[in-house]
Amino acid sequence: MSRWTPTMTRVVKRPPPAPFIQARLALCPHANMRSCKDIHMPTIAIISQKGGAGKTTLALHLAAAAEDAGHTALVIDLDPQATASQWAAWRKDAPPVVIDSAPPRLAAKIEQARAQGAAFIVIDTPPHADSAASAAVEAADLVLIPCRPSAFDLAAIKTTASLVKMRGKPAFVIFTAGSPTAPRMYEEATQLVQDYGLDACPHRVADRAAFRHAAAEGKTAMEIEPDGKAADEVRQLYKWTCEHVNMQASTKRRASA
Fold it and tell me: Left (φ > 0), alpha (ψ -120 to 50) or beta: where does 100 sit?
């Protein structure tokens, strides 16, 4: 079975993603099972109403960390700008898989992906898009709200806070793109998050050059600097995420295809 390769632009009609995911089933630790209904396959929504919070970077790196740990991961790109899809196109066949979706089709895409063996799904959402955010929260087992540790950025999470509370979904603010060495700033930001009725994730993804360099190359921080601080931050966040969705962080590593 041939692999599906994401197109380089969105003006060309994409073929269905199913063949690509099906081609990876031989690598999936659950592929030999008749049904995956009894296996917990979490969906993580990355939501922020403010641009520049690092949603796509976070989504792609969490999915890549899941792949590194032996899971078959999928990113669903709800953003019309298609940044995640473009990154996947640069990588050609290298995982994680990225597909796009309109918000009304999200639930169906998730159901299809799970049936085909996706074990860890991350939803990347656009800013200033209530319909996409609402659909993502509805589908999610866990909501992560990336936010810069500044008063102006934190004020913008009020809308998202109301949404996740209304849907009753577990949600955490994760500080992104901040200084790696400013403990007082993070303490003050954490207090503001709590004032809005949310919890702050104990792990953060700081502003590090490795993330920018990796994006420019269509790679991840773990690939260009596997022993670097950026890679370590992502791995720690991934393990923490797995704990909050009752998922085993690592499986026996798949054999190379």
Answer: beta
**What distance in Å separates the CA atoms of residue 221 and residue 232, rounded to the nearest whole number?**
9
Q: Is residue 115 part of a domain?
A: yes
Domain-located, residue 255: no
pLDDT, tens digit, 9 for 90 and up, residues 44-69: 999 998 888 999 999 999 999 999 99
CA distance 133 to 136: 5
CATH of the domain at 45: 3.40.50.300
- 183 part of a folded domain: yes
Contact 83, 100 (CB under 8 A): no
Packing angle of the helix pair 158-167, 130-139 (nearest 10 deg): 40
Whether the CB-CB separation of 149 and 180 falls below 8 Å is answered with: no
**Total domain count, the chain:** 1
pTM score = 0.84
The strand pairing partners of 171, in sequence order, are 143
- Tell me, letter by letter, the H, E, C secondary structure of 54-75: CHHHHHHHHHHHHHHCCCCEEE
In a domain, 198, yes or no: yes
Domain extent, residue 95, equals: 39-244
Indicate if the pLDDT at residue 7 is higher than 60.
Answer: no
Cα gap 218→79, rounded to integer Å: 18
What does the alpha-carbon distance between residue 201 and residue 87 come to, in Å, rounded to a whole number?
26
Best CA proximity match to 43, nearest among 119, 117, 105, 101: 119
| Side-chain half-sphere CA neighbours of 173 within 13 A | 30
